[in-house]
Amino acid sequence: RPSIPAAGAKKGPAAKKRTKKVKAERPGRAAPVRRSARVLERRNRTVGGDESSLASVDVTSAEGKGRESEKVPAVIPQEEPAEVEVNYGRYPQEPDGLDDDEFRVYASLRRWRLRRKNELDVEAYKICQNRTLCELIRRRRNDPCWGALSDGEGNAKSEEDVVAELTECWGIGEAKAGADGFGPEMIRVMDGSEEKELLAASRKRHVKENKDA
Hints:
Oligomer: single chain
Radius of gyration: 28 Å
Structural class: mainly alpha
Number of strands: 3
Distance between the termini: 96 Å
Low-confidence stretches: 42-64, 67-76
Largest sheet: 3 strands, antiparallel
Number of helices: 8
Shape: globular
Protein backbone atom coordinates (compact mmCIF):
# COMPACT_ATOMS: atom_id res chain seq x y z
CA ARG A 1 0.00 0.00 0.00
CA PRO A 2 1.56 3.36 -1.05
CA SER A 3 2.34 5.77 1.74
CA ILE A 4 0.36 8.98 1.91
CA PRO A 5 2.44 12.09 2.69
CA ALA A 6 1.43 14.01 5.74
CA ALA A 7 -0.46 17.25 5.34
CA GLY A 8 1.82 20.21 4.82
CA ALA A 9 4.77 18.01 3.79
CA LYS A 10 7.05 19.53 1.18
CA LYS A 11 7.08 17.91 -2.18
CA GLY A 12 10.36 16.62 -3.50
CA PRO A 13 12.02 17.86 -6.69
CA ALA A 14 10.53 14.96 -8.64
CA ALA A 15 7.03 16.06 -7.72
CA LYS A 16 7.43 19.54 -9.20
CA LYS A 17 5.36 20.19 -12.25
CA ARG A 18 7.49 20.66 -15.28
CA THR A 19 6.42 22.72 -18.25
CA LYS A 20 7.69 21.84 -21.66
CA LYS A 21 9.07 24.76 -23.60
CA VAL A 22 7.69 24.98 -27.08
CA LYS A 23 10.24 26.23 -29.60
CA ALA A 24 8.81 29.02 -31.69
CA GLU A 25 8.85 28.44 -35.41
CA ARG A 26 11.37 30.54 -37.26
CA PRO A 27 9.81 32.65 -39.99
CA GLY A 28 10.94 32.14 -43.56
CA ARG A 29 13.54 34.41 -45.10
CA ALA A 30 12.02 37.75 -46.00
CA ALA A 31 12.87 39.72 -49.10
CA PRO A 32 15.74 42.18 -48.63
CA VAL A 33 14.55 45.59 -47.41
CA ARG A 34 16.42 48.82 -48.06
CA ARG A 35 16.68 50.99 -44.97
CA SER A 36 19.06 53.64 -46.29
CA ALA A 37 18.24 57.33 -46.20
CA ARG A 38 17.84 57.25 -49.97
CA VAL A 39 14.93 54.84 -49.69
CA LEU A 40 13.45 55.89 -46.38
CA GLU A 41 12.92 59.41 -47.66
CA ARG A 42 10.26 58.00 -49.97
CA ARG A 43 8.15 56.84 -47.06
CA ASN A 44 6.12 58.86 -44.56
CA ARG A 45 8.45 61.26 -42.83
CA THR A 46 8.22 62.73 -39.34
CA VAL A 47 7.86 66.45 -39.79
CA GLY A 48 9.14 68.80 -37.09
CA GLY A 49 10.28 72.36 -36.80
CA ASP A 50 7.79 75.20 -37.07
CA GLU A 51 4.53 75.43 -35.18
CA SER A 52 2.41 74.55 -38.23
CA SER A 53 3.95 71.07 -38.42
CA LEU A 54 3.01 70.15 -34.85
CA ALA A 55 -0.21 68.32 -34.07
CA SER A 56 -2.01 68.66 -30.74
CA VAL A 57 -2.71 65.37 -28.90
CA ASP A 58 -3.99 64.51 -25.41
CA VAL A 59 -1.56 62.82 -23.04
CA THR A 60 -1.81 61.87 -19.37
CA SER A 61 0.39 63.94 -17.08
CA ALA A 62 3.13 62.24 -15.05
CA GLU A 63 1.16 62.73 -11.82
CA GLY A 64 -1.89 61.12 -13.40
CA LYS A 65 -3.99 64.24 -12.78
CA GLY A 66 -6.26 64.46 -15.77
CA ARG A 67 -5.16 64.89 -19.36
CA GLU A 68 -3.16 67.66 -20.92
CA SER A 69 -2.71 68.86 -24.47
CA GLU A 70 0.80 68.53 -25.84
CA LYS A 71 2.14 69.32 -29.28
CA VAL A 72 4.25 66.59 -30.87
CA PRO A 73 5.67 66.11 -34.38
CA ALA A 74 2.99 64.84 -36.72
CA VAL A 75 3.61 62.10 -39.29
CA ILE A 76 2.44 63.60 -42.56
CA PRO A 77 2.32 61.44 -45.71
CA GLN A 78 4.61 62.82 -48.39
CA GLU A 79 4.31 62.35 -52.11
CA GLU A 80 6.79 59.83 -53.49
CA PRO A 81 9.66 61.77 -55.04
CA ALA A 82 11.14 61.01 -58.43
CA GLU A 83 13.47 58.03 -58.73
CA VAL A 84 16.98 58.88 -57.56
CA GLU A 85 19.36 58.84 -60.51
CA VAL A 86 22.09 56.20 -60.35
CA ASN A 87 25.44 56.98 -61.92
CA TYR A 88 26.48 53.67 -63.46
CA GLY A 89 29.80 55.15 -64.52
CA ARG A 90 30.97 55.32 -60.90
CA TYR A 91 31.80 52.58 -58.42
CA PRO A 92 29.62 53.04 -55.32
CA GLN A 93 31.18 52.88 -51.88
CA GLU A 94 27.87 52.28 -50.11
CA PRO A 95 24.71 50.31 -51.03
CA ASP A 96 22.91 53.66 -51.41
CA GLY A 97 24.61 53.95 -54.80
CA LEU A 98 23.14 50.69 -56.11
CA ASP A 99 19.89 50.41 -58.00
CA ASP A 100 17.16 48.07 -56.73
CA ASP A 101 18.29 45.09 -58.86
CA GLU A 102 21.90 45.52 -57.83
CA PHE A 103 20.82 45.79 -54.20
CA ARG A 104 19.26 42.33 -54.32
CA VAL A 105 22.57 40.94 -55.60
CA TYR A 106 24.21 42.80 -52.72
CA ALA A 107 21.87 40.98 -50.32
CA SER A 108 22.91 37.64 -51.84
CA LEU A 109 26.58 38.46 -51.35
CA ARG A 110 25.90 39.50 -47.75
CA ARG A 111 24.28 36.12 -47.07
CA TRP A 112 27.29 34.39 -48.61
CA ARG A 113 29.64 36.46 -46.44
CA LEU A 114 27.65 35.63 -43.29
CA ARG A 115 27.83 31.92 -44.08
CA ARG A 116 31.60 32.06 -44.68
CA LYS A 117 32.07 34.15 -41.53
CA ASN A 118 30.35 31.47 -39.46
CA GLU A 119 32.29 28.68 -41.16
CA LEU A 120 35.67 30.30 -40.65
CA ASP A 121 34.84 31.95 -37.31
CA VAL A 122 36.27 35.30 -38.39
CA GLU A 123 34.97 38.85 -38.52
CA ALA A 124 32.96 39.70 -41.63
CA TYR A 125 35.18 42.63 -42.59
CA LYS A 126 38.16 40.27 -42.81
CA ILE A 127 36.41 38.47 -45.65
CA CYS A 128 35.48 41.68 -47.43
CA GLN A 129 33.95 45.04 -46.64
CA ASN A 130 30.66 46.44 -47.93
CA ARG A 131 32.49 48.80 -50.25
CA THR A 132 34.12 45.80 -51.93
CA LEU A 133 30.74 44.15 -52.46
CA CYS A 134 29.25 47.32 -53.97
CA GLU A 135 32.12 47.91 -56.37
CA LEU A 136 32.26 44.24 -57.32
CA ILE A 137 28.56 44.29 -58.24
CA ARG A 138 28.88 47.46 -60.32
CA ARG A 139 31.91 46.15 -62.22
CA ARG A 140 30.12 42.89 -63.01
CA ARG A 141 26.94 44.74 -63.89
CA ASN A 142 28.79 46.97 -66.36
CA ASP A 143 30.79 44.07 -67.83
CA PRO A 144 29.19 40.58 -67.63
CA CYS A 145 32.58 38.98 -68.37
CA TRP A 146 34.54 40.90 -65.74
CA GLY A 147 36.26 38.50 -63.34
CA ALA A 148 34.87 35.49 -65.22
CA LEU A 149 36.94 32.53 -66.34
CA SER A 150 36.09 33.12 -70.00
CA ASP A 151 35.31 36.05 -72.25
CA GLY A 152 32.03 36.65 -74.04
CA GLU A 153 33.09 34.49 -76.99
CA GLY A 154 33.79 31.38 -74.93
CA ASN A 155 37.58 31.78 -74.86
CA ALA A 156 39.17 30.82 -71.55
CA LYS A 157 41.09 33.50 -69.67
CA SER A 158 44.39 32.82 -68.02
CA GLU A 159 44.54 32.80 -64.24
CA GLU A 160 46.81 35.84 -64.40
CA ASP A 161 44.17 37.76 -66.38
CA VAL A 162 41.43 36.85 -63.91
CA VAL A 163 43.59 37.90 -60.95
CA ALA A 164 44.47 41.16 -62.70
CA GLU A 165 40.78 41.97 -63.17
CA LEU A 166 39.75 41.10 -59.63
CA THR A 167 42.56 43.13 -58.07
CA GLU A 168 41.17 46.21 -59.85
CA CYS A 169 38.37 46.12 -57.28
CA TRP A 170 38.90 47.98 -54.02
CA GLY A 171 39.69 45.63 -51.13
CA ILE A 172 40.72 42.62 -53.23
CA GLY A 173 44.41 41.76 -53.21
CA GLU A 174 46.22 38.94 -54.95
CA ALA A 175 45.57 36.51 -52.08
CA LYS A 176 41.81 37.02 -52.29
CA ALA A 177 41.88 37.07 -56.10
CA GLY A 178 43.59 33.69 -56.40
CA ALA A 179 41.76 30.54 -57.46
CA ASP A 180 41.10 29.56 -53.82
CA GLY A 181 40.36 33.08 -52.62
CA PHE A 182 37.18 34.95 -51.77
CA GLY A 183 37.17 36.85 -55.07
CA PRO A 184 36.29 33.86 -57.29
CA GLU A 185 33.75 32.73 -54.66
CA MET A 186 31.94 36.06 -54.94
CA ILE A 187 32.01 35.82 -58.73
CA ARG A 188 30.38 32.39 -58.49
CA VAL A 189 27.65 33.87 -56.30
CA MET A 190 26.96 36.49 -58.97
CA ASP A 191 26.93 33.73 -61.58
CA GLY A 192 23.84 32.25 -59.94
CA SER A 193 20.75 32.20 -62.13
CA GLU A 194 18.82 34.72 -60.04
CA GLU A 195 21.79 37.09 -59.67
CA LYS A 196 22.53 36.99 -63.41
CA GLU A 197 18.91 37.85 -64.16
CA LEU A 198 18.99 40.76 -61.73
CA LEU A 199 22.15 42.22 -63.24
CA ALA A 200 20.71 41.78 -66.74
CA ALA A 201 17.56 43.61 -65.60
CA SER A 202 19.74 46.44 -64.27
CA ARG A 203 21.44 46.78 -67.66
CA LYS A 204 18.07 46.88 -69.43
CA ARG A 205 16.82 49.49 -66.96
CA HIS A 206 19.73 51.77 -67.90
CA VAL A 207 19.15 51.26 -71.65
CA LYS A 208 15.44 52.08 -71.25
CA GLU A 209 16.25 55.23 -69.28
CA ASN A 210 18.61 56.40 -72.02
CA LYS A 211 15.98 55.80 -74.71
CA ASP A 212 13.32 57.68 -72.73
CA ALA A 213 15.71 60.57 -72.27
